[in-house]
């Protein structure tokens, strides 16, 4: 192991003084060495794209391979149901695989995969191309047809990319569920999307332990009539029962399938996938993305934002493939651009807290993309871990998922980036499909905590409550023009699509759900969600979904869930809980409730704090006043409480909340 040659930070003292010095810098100019090699350095890109966004996106779409070229770009005759490149036909898996193999790049590594126990595999484009065709044929043999939804519930193993691409090849929209969700959540998502097949695994490994997955899937999925096939990857060596006629081993399916499966020419608007995300109600939203527009957006943004050099870059997005970040920047963007990525199965602190930096050194990672929460965790563990490794291969760093606090930004910049790598703070959402607001690293000076400006061809603005534009100050973030990668609808629920995003300011203004500030340079500073969504470690959770899981516990009468600021996870979940009858809350019941939430939703939704409430603050009509609870959790002054049915309830809870903070 070498000492890093690029950082001047060798201990905590040096770190503190460097951070103190950097805190004074308001604006980080593009490093000269970076600008010299950057793909985009002409400031006119913005003006040119924005003068004719359709022409711009058409040009970007033509960077892909089209089986049938499109002649129309944007159909906006029925807003907000926009269509892009409608009469064109293409195939996502063809664009991600065949075209690279045909260009002679089959031997290029698509993924350096590292398993939790140190196993390594280099998977080339030719390997992926072979396996994807085999699995696509296998799925067809199982009766999966174009338009059938296929669920995918897999850990971070190469088969997850194979599964997604095999679906894309035959036009079967996939519905990937993050491996950290509970089997109950998977079952719910399979049920509402009427999944025809599910691709899962015998067991998953996490920090040295193995958990059975297939057995859990069997427990909760048996009643689903639509589910005709379960494909099981043999990964963790866990025994599992296979149901005759329904279950098939992934490996057997591949070995018995025909090798050639030509990519189907699919209409540009054919759905590529559904990805469930949390909204303001307990029912998750099935965000639906398409083939042509989505791939255009992810390929273009991956290339531009990460200043991609497909021949030489080693790109690592540390997200899980089960989130949109993984869909767009582990699978579709990098593969469409033919670059080499890293895929890591394990946790950032297993087998040791330096594993991420070891991976960067081992594979010579050049572009690294992660979440502020992860950066804060690494900060807490200390500089000694990154300092043990040579991080000099890094050229650019990225963040996503939540606002990054300036101290974490500066730590990332100084300790990981050796003060020479630009940081791209990328703002986007599951719904937007790809990055929307972010610096172009060769062109835009950065400010710690700001995602800077909208990308070329993207139109973002701030408005007040009446929809008037705010050029400087704080307001509601909106997107004022359709973009190719935007969601097309919520699966099976066009009405909810319209009411969630386009009701407030009409069908041409997409309401993001975030508040933001704009400074005198026009830079955006994202403040956070304006709806009932909590962002824990960059993961979106609906307060209503967590509440409904808590009240389903037999001892609970009522619950209200709000966020509170958390140093590590950005926000944490606080649950105010009223128990049934005379039951008293204690640590044992609190743990029962947490476990219960884990089972219903997943570990990530467990409340960090539970506050026992004899009653909850309600209006006279009986509505819970979450705003007051939120103010309490965030330590703010409480406003007028006289409209409450029982104002004394508030005082009791306020004291309990404060007592908890002190303890
Ligand atoms: O509140 C914003 C926050 O994450 C939300 C989107 O969450 P999700 O759909 O799960 O997608 C996360 C990964 C793309 C946004 O509405 N968010 C995302 N990126 C940033 C951010 N907040 C601040 N800065 C960001 N860079």
Describe the protein in words.
The chain has 663 residues and is an alpha/beta fold. Among the domains are: 127-283, Rossmann fold, CATH 3.40.50; 532-662, GMP Synthetase, Chain A, domain 3 (2-Layer Sandwich), CATH 3.30.300. Helix content is 33%, strand content 22%. It contains 21 helices and 31 strands. The strands form eight sheets. Strands 12-11-8-6-7-14-15-24 form an eight-stranded mixed sheet. α3 (44-51) crosses α4 (53-61), α6 (125-141) crosses α7 and α14 packs across α16. The protein is globular. The relative contact order is 0.11. Adenosine-5'-monophosphate-propyl ester is lined by residues 277, 324-325, 400-403, 425-430, 451, 512-514, 526, 528-529, 535, 540.
Write a brief caption for the model.
The chain is of the alpha/beta class. It binds adenosine-5'-monophosphate-propyl ester. Adenosine-5'-monophosphate-propyl ester binds next to α12, β20, β25 and β26.
Say how many strands there are.
Answer: 31
Gap from first CA to last CA: 43 Å
Overall SS class: alpha/beta
Mean pLDDT: 94
CATH architecture of the domain at 127-283: 3-Layer(aba) Sandwich
Q: Return the CATH class of the domain at 127-283.
A: Alpha Beta
Using only CA atoms, what is the Rg? 25 Å
Q: How many alpha or pi helices?
A: 21
Percentage of residues in strands: 15-25%
Low-confidence stretches: 1-5
Bound ligands = adenosine-5'-monophosphate-propyl ester
Query: How helix-rich are the residues, as a percent range?
Result: 25-40%
Largest sheet: 8 strands, mixed
Q: Which fold name is given in CATH as the topology of the domain at 127-283?
A: Rossmann fold
Query: What is the strand arrangement across the widest sheet?
Result: 12-11-8-6-7-14-15-24
| Overall form | globular
């Amino acid at each position: 192991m070498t000492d890093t040659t690029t950082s001047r930070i060798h201990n905590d003292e040096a770190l503190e003084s460097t951070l103190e010095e950097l805190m004074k810098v308001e604006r980080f100019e593009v490093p000269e060495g970076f600008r010299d090699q950057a793909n985009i350095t002409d400031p006119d890109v913005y003006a040119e794209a924005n003068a004719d966004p359709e022409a711009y996106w058409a040009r970007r779409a033509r960077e892909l391979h089209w089986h049938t070229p499109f002649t129309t770009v944007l159909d906006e005759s029925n807003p907000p149901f926009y269509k892009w490149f409608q009469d064109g036909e293409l195939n996502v898996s063809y664009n991600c695989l065949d075209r690279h193999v045909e260009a002679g790049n089959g031997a290029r590594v698509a993924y350096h995969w590292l398993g939790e126990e140190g196993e390594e595999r280099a998977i080339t484009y030719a390997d992926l191309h072979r396996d994807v065709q085999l699995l696509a044929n296998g799925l067809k043999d199982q009766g999966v047809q174009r338009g059938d939804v296929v669920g995918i519930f897999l850990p971070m193993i190469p088969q997850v990319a194979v599964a997604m691409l095999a679906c894309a090849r035959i036009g079967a929209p996939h519905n990937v569920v993050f491996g950290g969700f509970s089997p109950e959540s998977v079952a719910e998502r399979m049920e509402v999307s009427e999944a025809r097949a599910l691709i899962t695994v015998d067991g998953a490994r996490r920090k040295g332990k193995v958990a059975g997955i297939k057995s859990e899937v069997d427990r909760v999925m048996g009643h689903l009539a639509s589910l005709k096939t379960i494909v099981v990857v043999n990964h963790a060596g866990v025994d599992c029962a296979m149901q005759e006629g329904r279950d098939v081993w992934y490996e057997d399916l591949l070995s018995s399938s025909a090798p050639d499966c030509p990519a189907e020419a699919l209409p540009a608007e054919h759905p590529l996938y559904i990805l469930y995300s949390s909204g303001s109600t307990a029912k998750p939203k099935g965000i639906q993305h398409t083939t042509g527009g989505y791939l255009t957006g992810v390929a273009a943004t991956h290339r531009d934002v990460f200043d991609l050099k497909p021949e030489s870059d080693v790109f690592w997005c540390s997200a899980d493939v089960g989130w949109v970040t993984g869909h767009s920047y582990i699978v579709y963007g990098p593969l469409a651009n033919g670059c080499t990525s890293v895929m890591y199965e394990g946790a950032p602190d297993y087998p040791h807290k330096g594993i991420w930096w070891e991976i960067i050194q081992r594979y010579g990672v050049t572009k690294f993309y992660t979440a502020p929460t992860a950066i804060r965790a690494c900060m807490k563990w200390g500089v000694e871990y990154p300092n043990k490794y040579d991080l000099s291969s890094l050229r650019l760093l990225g963040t996503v998922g939540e606002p990054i606090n300036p101290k974490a930004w500066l730590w990332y910049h100084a300790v990981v980036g050796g003060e020479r790598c630009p940081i791209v703070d990328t703002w986007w959402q599951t719904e937007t499909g790809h990055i929307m607001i972010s610096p172009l690293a060769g062109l835009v000076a950065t400010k710690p905590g700001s995602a800077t400006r909208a990308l070329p061809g993207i139109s973002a603005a701030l408005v007040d409550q009446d929809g008037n534009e705010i050029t400087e100050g704080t307001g509601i973030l909106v997107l004022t023009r359709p973009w190719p990668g935007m969601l097309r609808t919520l699966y099976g629920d066009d009405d909810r699509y319209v009411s969630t995003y386009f009701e407030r300011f009409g069908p041409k203004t997409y309401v993001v759900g975030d508040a933001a500030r704009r400074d005198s340079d026009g830079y955006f500073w994202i403040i956070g969600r304006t709806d009932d969504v909590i962002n824990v470690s960059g993961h979106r959770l609906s307060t209503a979904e967590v509440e409904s899981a808590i009240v389903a516990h037999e001892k609970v009468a009522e619950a209200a869930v709000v966020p509170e600021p958390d140093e590590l996870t950005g926000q944490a979940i606080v649950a105010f809980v009223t128990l049934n009858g005379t039951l008293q809350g204690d640590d044992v019941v609190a743990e029962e409730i947490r476990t219960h939430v884990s089972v219903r939703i997943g570990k990530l939704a467990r409340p960090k704090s539970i506050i026992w409430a004899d009653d909850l603050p309600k209006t006279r009509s009986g509505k819970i006043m979450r705003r007051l609870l939120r103010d309490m959790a965030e330590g703010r002054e409480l406003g007028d409480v006289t409209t409450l049915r029982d104002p004394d309830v508030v005082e009791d809870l306020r004291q309990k909340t404060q007592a908890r903070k002190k303890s």
